[in-house]
Amino acid sequence: MVEASVGHIADIPEKKNSVDVDNGFAVEYVLTPKGRETITHLRQQLKKASMLILATDADREGELIAAHLVEFLKPTVPVQRVEFRSVTKDAVEKALTQPRQIDASLVEAAKTRRILDRLYGFEVSPVLWRKVRQNLSAGRVQSPAMRLVVERELERHQFVSAGYFDIDATSATLPAFVAKLTAVDGQRIATGKDFDSRGVLVNDVRAISIEMAAAIATVLESGPSALTVSSFAEKAYSRFPQRPFTMSSLYQAAGNRLGMSTAEARVVSQQLFDHGHITYPRTDNGAFGREALAKVRHAVKEVFGDALLSPKARYISGVGKNAQAAHEAIHPTRMLVRRPAGLTPRQQALYELIWQRTIATQMSDASGVTVSITLQTTAAISPTVDCEFSASGTTITSPGFRLAYGFEEEDEKEKALPALAVGESVPMESFTMLQHATAPPARFTEASLVKELEELGIGRPSTYASIIAKLRERYIWSKKGERALVPTITAFAVHRIMTQYFQPLVDYTFTQIMEKDLDRITSGEQMRDLLLTDFYFGAGGEWPGIHPLIESTIKTIDPKQLFAIDLGLHPTTGESMLIKPGILRKGTFSPYLQCGEATRSISDQTMLDELDIPAMVALLSAQEVVVGHIDGVPVIVKTTSTGSYFQLGNKEVLPVGSKKPRTAGLLSHMTPRTVTIEDAIAMFSLPRTIGSHPQTGHDIVAHFGKFGAYIVCGEDTRSLKDETALFSLILGDAVALLAIPKKPRGNFRGKK
Fold this sequence. Notes:
This protein is of the alpha+beta class. It has six domains: 10-102, Rossmann fold (3-Layer(aba) Sandwich), CATH 3.40.50.140; 124-158 and 444-556, Topoisomerase I, domain 2; 163-240 and 367-437, Topoisomerase I, domain 3, CATH 2.70.20; 247-364, Topoisomerase I, domain 4 (Orthogonal Bundle), CATH 1.10.290.10; 563-672, no CATH class; 688-739, no CATH class. It has 21 helices and 27 strands. A six-stranded antiparallel β-barrel has the order 7-8-12-11-10-13. A four-stranded antiparallel beta sheet has the order 16-17-18-19. The chain has a four-stranded antiparallel beta sheet with strand order 20-21-22-23, with helices on one face. A hairpin with a 5-residue loop joins β11 (366-379) and β12 (385-398).
């Protein structure tokens, strides 16, 4: 019989002293609620078995799961550990002939990683609870990742855009082409790359004014309308295919090509693996095993013919500076199957992406010819100037691996140029002046954040999706229909604390070194106790140890002085306008604007671009706004020192059957400036009865209060991470949520 353990069954308790820092960092794993159910079921099944074969994933986490299964099942029958990289008949049968023992080094590495994460969270998270607000978290990978998103937003906010001009000349030839003005009087003209983030020209180039650009375009448009070829050059073009997928590069491609979040890509790739369509997805090694390599090359010959097979096998070993080589690159288990039966559209889309990338790796290069030309003329403006235009284009003569993609690679834009000779006069159809502006660096998407983390050596393939999910709970959000990651106001406040008081904990190099040390435990090059002792207590160098760092610093942090963003001075009063994170004050957790004694609540999901001085001055002066009516009763948005809220009715008009106006709060994404009457109707529909609990008979009711969104069933409550679930949560999901035990809250302190 085959049974699933369904992931980790045990964990370190989230409570005080669960890691004994005074006794060699000893821990005792306990079964999770799901783990208890799994072990109970497996014990019953084990009574019918003559052998226990453990086939969990062949990595650190899988090895730890296998060890915990043995620990908690306490089997009396023989135990074997097997591993396979794909769920296929051949792979499973081969694995069964090669059993091994549980790898103690892998288990130790997994446990050490978990202890390290617990120590980080136990030490830093309580600081955030005391100095910012409850329910915030910090993490070894999570906090540096948050820093990346926040600092990218600050870069964008501080960016000064610079304008520049050029001219496009469109030819009257067949095929037509566009040449761009690149130099005036022999000096290159400025493009976006020549300006810094302050809008200052930093290179020795010429920024032509709008007046000059307009004059040149007008003169050339009205003149002979021809350019003379001054140079014509051809060179061979060649491009080789990208490496096979790792987990992180699959996340990036799935996000960029399919619009998948990392969470969706993780789930869909796991589904493809579980059904035997692809190899193990959580890998950071971009190399094929020799058997897989042979199958890929055979598939290329079968599908595209010998002519498109690369002359040499592209066997990429040790890909990536952080590759652990625990698994080979992701690839289909059956190379000749491009569209497996029974897949959902999303599964098929991701599978197709993997198939294309895999097959392309062993195909010939794409090749062709790139042509570059320069053209010259003189513009009779005052004074007369010599103008140089440039154009280039590539003609693909042999598509090679591009055939695997169906020529749909977005970065491959062919532009053929006509055959021209030096000295030839080229007729032009038009000259168009173009105005450009430099743009701030783009916000991270989930895909680009994963890429950045991987390049920095922070985190591992199995952690990226969960890290981003954790960030989305409190620290990042995206506009509806967009993929860009925007930091919350809370994220700015936490970033300020972490970088000002605990900078090493969000230092990218420090985090990278920790990752490498954890990898070295697997190979036996690093001692577990030494790593944990150095991290927690310090090693006598510049790093003091996380516990001494927290103990010596926490009293110096004054929450009253903490702010997320300094907007500058009020134009009338001269007082500082500060965005504060919303420490518990008079019952509110909402971030707020403070200017002198005046405060105004704002949404945690407010973009930095929206926090300009005029808008905030207007917010400070606004007290009440009528957003509409419900059954003839006015709905007013009121703003006080403790926050903003809806009020239904006033002294003149009250709701039917009420002796006073009704009130309702605003969700975290709502602001007094943006709320609508529909928002008010939704909030006044609360509390909402979801249904009766099938076991207790108590009504399950969705509420929204000063501590956020939650459900109540009798005396039992559970928080809702997604506030919109207040209006959409169904009975089955509510019952399942209530069945999850509440996480215990406690502080962690250790002594040396």
